[in-house]
Amino acid sequence: MSGFLPSGINIVLSILGIITVGSIFAIISNSTIDRIPKNQSIINPGPYCKTCAAKLFWKDLIPIWSYFHSKGKCPYCNDPIPQRNLIVDIAQVGWVAIYITLLGWSYQAVLEMVFGMVLIAIIVIEKENRRLSDLILLLLGMLSVIYLLSFQPSNFPMSVIGFLVGGIILGLYNGLKILTRTKSHIDIAEIKFGAILGLFLGISQIVLCVFVALLIGAIGGSFRIKFMAKDYYSAVPEFPLLMAVAGLITILFGQEMLILYHMGVD
Ligand SMILES: [Zn+2]
Questions:
Q1: Distance from the CA of 85 to the center of ligand 1, in angstroms?
Q2: From the CB of residue 116, how many other CB atoms can be counted at a distance below 10 Å?
Q3: Which end of the chain offers a freer environment for a tag, N or C, measured as fewer CB atoms within 10 Å?
Q4: Chain segment 194-246, per-residue pLDDT in tens
Q5: Residue ranges covered by each domain of the chain
Q6: Angle, to 10 degrees, between the axis of helix 156-179 and the axis of helix 134-151?
């Protein structure tokens, strides 16, 4: 996009791009979060109000803006729209804005941003205590394979090891939960999620991602125990949720973090 356009125009085009892509992500992910756990199609029927079933038009679907314009209520039946919709809107537009500011536009960026969009949807699904469906994992798996074959075909063998390591870590986590009697059975969907994240990130970055997840869990958990008087089990979020958050951080800063690490070791 750069080169022959004055930089002012580039910045304006970039902001328009961020708003457009972020808005599309927000609409897709809110609908995915609502429909996939119920095994409903994301496309058909089109967007509608969950209370009065009124069809929603484009003007009702502009992320963030529509929510405030209709004062957080359905414009047809006045029923409150879940606050989560607004939070997802802000998270998706924010994710695209941070990604583009740090890493810029490229073909690779498109796939990495879409992968991040799905991770944000997974964070919300995990937070709402719903199971990760096979459909969302299939989507994530396909994205990973397309990404690897398009941009890092030579990394493929190492990515397969990342796939195994990611799956084993989530498997161990599930085993630990059963041993401590906080869970009654192994959640295969969580193991699949770990494996796919490992495939996408590759071996060094999935290990980094696990450390980042543990760090966020430790810092966030201590903070909530100290200041919000939570007990240990309700203070520390579930590990798959932490892995999804850490996955976003790894996509943004993984390369730099690994370079810094190697500089420290050598
Ligand atoms: Zn309504």
A1: 14
A2: 22
A3: C
A4: 999 999 999 999 999 999 999 999 888 888 877 876 666 666 678 999 999 99
A5: 1-105, 134-266
A6: 150
